[in-house]
Amino acid sequence: MNLLYLNHYAGAPALGMEFRPYYLAREWVRLGHRVQMVACATSHVRATAPTPRGRPVEQPEHQDIDGIDYLWFPGPPYQGNGLGRVKNIWAFLSQVWRAAPGIARHFRPDVVIASSTYPMDIWVARRLARLAGAKLVFEVHDLWPLSPIELGGMSPHHPFIRLCQKAEDDAYRDADVVVSMLPKVHAHMAGRGLDLRKLHIVPNGITLDEWEGTPEPLREDVAGAVAAARAAGRTVVGYAGSMGLPNALDTLLDAAKRLRDAGAAIAFVLVGGGHERARLAERVRTEGLEASVTMLAPIPKRQIPSFLAGIDIAYIGWQRVPIYRFGIAPNKLMDYMMAGCAVLHSVEAGNDPVAEAGCGLTVAPEAPDAVAEGLRRLAALPAAERRAMGERGRAFVQAHHTYPVLAQRFIDAVR
């Protein structure tokens, strides 16, 4: 089949997030399908901007990445989630809307997938699908507009929220297939008009080739921080990923302060970037946590296996918000589990892969005492017991969350 994947934030290993579109598309190419990725060249989640011809994208340009035909559209730069991001979304969608007849004529898709985090891309994808006589698929990352309402505090009556709601309702009405990464969405989607016979669950996962062979060595500062903690006889707790409010890293710092005051031999190495990184680093400095907490810049994805191999416990946390009742599908947790890490999971959600796999402990979210106690319990276990937890996590991911498996599930849903 010819699969057109419309995802504003689609990335690749050399570019940064989002990775899921790339991994699914690469597997589809391996299965003999043709894939065109339609994405915006400017994104707040991408580490490196694409430059197909060695210069910034100024007009729609094609770029081959591992057999996937990326069609990049330019977009205005922005920071944060304000008006600048809205302008970026509008610029991208309006350009693809105008280009739709040419895309449909030249690529001739059999399937058009609307997969941006926001739902308004469904209108552009619907236009493409109708022009090409293709099947229309709506892929759900997060439930918009519920996510900005419940996580961002936006009013349900805000014009942007009303626009998102119209898009979500149109998607459930017009899509031939709906694919959700979140596993507990059935009641919500049915309540918004979806015929549940259209719904298929395809979660996030990992790609096996990133875990084969010798991993890329860690950047010197990260390797040094881990080695220093080990040399001091400390249990090393690691975090690798975005540093934003949804990641609940304030809770981890609060727990670190409690453990420091109690004299626990636990060190924290946090690697990543994001909107909250500077503020969190200032907390570490002003609250005297430098002796036990080290915050470092993001590392390339290919170094993640080396980082996770060097720590004893991996941390992932969430805010306590109602939106997680529909389930969670975190990429970083898949990496933690594939690395064989014992995991401390601070969450209250409709699903819990850590509990399902038996690969760590789950404690309440936004509860520093519970996080501190969970870390203390994991640190007190014999290393062999933590390794056994990690092996259970790895087996769980290999059985249910590898991209060859997920890509085939997606194709089966489409068919």
Automatic annotation (TrEMBL):
<dbReference type="GO" id="GO:0016757">
    <property type="term" value="F:glycosyltransferase activity"/>
</dbReference>
<dbReference type="InterPro" id="IPR028098">
    <property type="entry name" value="Glyco_trans_4-like_N"/>
</dbReference>
<keyword id="KW-0808">Transferase</keyword>
<protein>
    <submittedName>
        <fullName>Group 1 glycosyl transferase</fullName>
    </submittedName>
</protein>
<dbReference type="InterPro" id="IPR001296">
    <property type="entry name" value="Glyco_trans_1"/>
</dbReference>
<feature type="domain" description="Glycosyl transferase family 1">
    <location>
        <begin position="233"/>
        <end position="395"/>
    </location>
</feature>
<feature type="domain" description="Glycosyltransferase subfamily 4-like N-terminal">
    <location>
        <begin position="16"/>
        <end position="205"/>
    </location>
</feature>
<dbReference type="Pfam" id="PF00534">
    <property type="entry name" value="Glycos_transf_1"/>
</dbReference>
<dbReference type="Pfam" id="PF13579">
    <property type="entry name" value="Glyco_trans_4_4"/>
</dbReference>
